[in-house]
Amino acid sequence: MVAWLRKQLANWRGHLLTLLMVAAVVITVQWWQTRDVPPGPLPDVPLTVLMPDGSRSEATLRSLSERHAGSPVALHVWAEWCPICKAEEGTITSLARDWPVITVAMQSGDAAKVAAELRQRHLPWVTAVDPRGDVSRQLGFRAVPAFAVIDADGRLRLPAVGYTTSLGMRLRLWWIRLAG
User: Is 34-179 CATH 3.40.30.10?
Assistant: First the structure.
């Protein structure tokens, strides 16, 4: 019995070490992918913004986030051609029921094409159109999907590139709300 317990403890330590190494690799990759996200305020570049009701306006990401003063805002950068972005659509739509969400359609065409894509997929998102990916690059994102939280000072916090779970998104928003 004692020998069996020692063997189980040794296995547990090995699994814990493996889990720590995997966590270190994931954290390092996320840091590398988001290394260019600037620490300052959002770029103040005017964009065409598509609203869930189908209307269009001109606004900046900063002015859109300021409409939700006092609340962290989720920022989701996506592209219509990205299969992982498609996998996250339900998560973003669900998140938008509970938190303010701004999306950026990177390299997905002009406003008319993005609006058609949103209608076809039934996506009720506030979407800034970034046809050439210029704003996405200014935000420090070179790949999609990307997720970050805009804090009360208009800065991007806790960025992630690649698939982000619903829990991961919500925990980031809650953390920024708690941190003030």
Answer: yes
Q: What is the pLDDT of residues 126-137, one digit of tens each?
A: 999 999 999 999
Beta strands 126-130; 101-106: pairing state: parallel
Q: Whose CA is closest to 97, among 59, 62, 125? A: 125
Backbone angles phi, psi at 175, to 5 degrees: -60, -45
Enumerate the domain spans of the chain: 34-179
Spatial CA neighbour of 99 closest among 62, 133, 146, 149:
149
- Give the integer Cα–Cα distance in Å for 145 and 108: 13
Report the Cα 81 to chain-centroid distance in Å: 17
pTM equals 0.86
In sequence order, the 6+-apart residues with CB closer than 8 A to the CB of 132 are 107
DSSP letter (8 states) at residue 113: H
Summarised one tens digit per residue, pLDDT across range 61-116 is: 999 999 998 899 999 999 999 999 999 999 999 999 999 999 999 999 999 999 99
CB atoms within 10 A of CB 120: 9
Residue in the structure block whose two tokens are 């570049």: 45
